[in-house]
């Protein structure tokens, strides 16, 4: 699997959302926008059911770690979730597969990871970016780190156990750390 990157420019973050909607679907744009705000692994994001959302919180067990993730939903995430719910009031999953005939005649299933991977790769190729399903999680971590400079806080949000893993994951390079030392003179 190819290494994907955090999107460091906020205008590019918005452009990706726009292109996903125009080139693929509104659903793919919603996955991008909600994924940015929840920082979940794609398998967990796609498995979210509307019943997992209680008031302003998402409560799920992460599939990779088995840990309970209780995430307070910000206003932007709540607005996107509300839009999906109003558009598809009978859906069980937040990102339910509904376009093909099989989906219409069988029990509800979430959208496949493969479909999301293809859509993100298409937009990534257009923008010459290494864009993938982990890009949402990495992007949120990167921007939280740059806002707070608190790696422990980013680790907690991503539910990582090592600073080194988190720094590598969000794309903080030794070059950036060196630059911080050069620019900050006390």
Task: Give structural notes.
By secondary structure, the protein is mostly helical. 56% of the residues lie in helices and 6% in strands. It contains 10 helices and 3 strands. Helix 1 packs antiparallel against helix 2. The protein is globular and about 65 Å long. It starts with 9 loop residues before the first helix and ends with a helix.
At the fold tier of CATH, the topology name is hpI Integrase, Chain A
Helix tally equals: 10
Q: State the helical fraction.
A: 55-70%
- Low-pLDDT runs of 5+ residues are none
Mean pLDDT, to the nearest integer, reads 91
CATH architecture descriptor: Orthogonal Bundle
User: Compute the gyration radius: what is it?
Assistant: 17 Å
Estimate the global geometry from the Cα principal axes. Answer: globular
Distance between the termini: 43 Å
CATH H level: which superfamily? Intergrase catalytic core
Question: What is the structure about, briefly put?
Answer:
By secondary structure, the protein is mainly α. The protein contains ten helices and three strands.
Key attributes of the depicted protein:
186 residues; mainly alpha; hpI Integrase, Chain A; three-stranded antiparallel β-sheet; 10 helices; Tyr recombinase domain-containing protein; DNA recombination; Integrase_catalytic; DNA binding; Integrase-like_cat_sf
Fold topology:
Layout: H1 10-23, H2 26-38, H3 42-46, E1 53-54, E2 57-61, E3 68-72, H4 75-87, H5 101-105, H6 113-127, H7 135-148, H8 151-158, H9 163-170, H10 174-183
Antiparallel strand pairs: 1-2, 2-3
Keywords: DNA integration, DNA recombination
Pfam families: Phage_integrase (PF00589)
GO molecular function, one term: DNA binding
């Amino acid at each position: 699997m190819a290494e994907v990157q955090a999107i460091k420019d906020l205008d590019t973050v918005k452009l990706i959302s726009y292109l996903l909607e125009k080139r693929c679907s509104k659903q793919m744009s919603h996955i991008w926008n909600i994924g940015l705000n929840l920082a979940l692994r794609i398998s967990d994001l796609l498995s979210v059911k509307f019943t997992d959302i209680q008031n302003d919180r998402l409560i799920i067990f992460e599939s990779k770690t088995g840990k309970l993730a209780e995430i307070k939903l910000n206003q932007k995430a709540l607005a996107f979730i509300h839009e999906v719910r109003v558009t598809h009031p009978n859906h069980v999953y937040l990102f339910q597969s509904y376009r093909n005939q099989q989906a219409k005649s069988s029990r509800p299933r979430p959208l496949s990871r493969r479909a999301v991977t293809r859509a993100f790769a298409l937009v990534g190729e257009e923008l010459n970016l290494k864009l993938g399903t982990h890009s949402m999680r990495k992007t949120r971590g990167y921007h939280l780190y740059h806002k707070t400079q608190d790696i422990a806080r980013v680790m907690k949000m991503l539910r990582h156990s090592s600073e080194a893993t988190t720094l590598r994951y969000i794309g903080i390079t030794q070059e950036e750390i060196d630059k911080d030392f050069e620019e900050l003179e006390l």
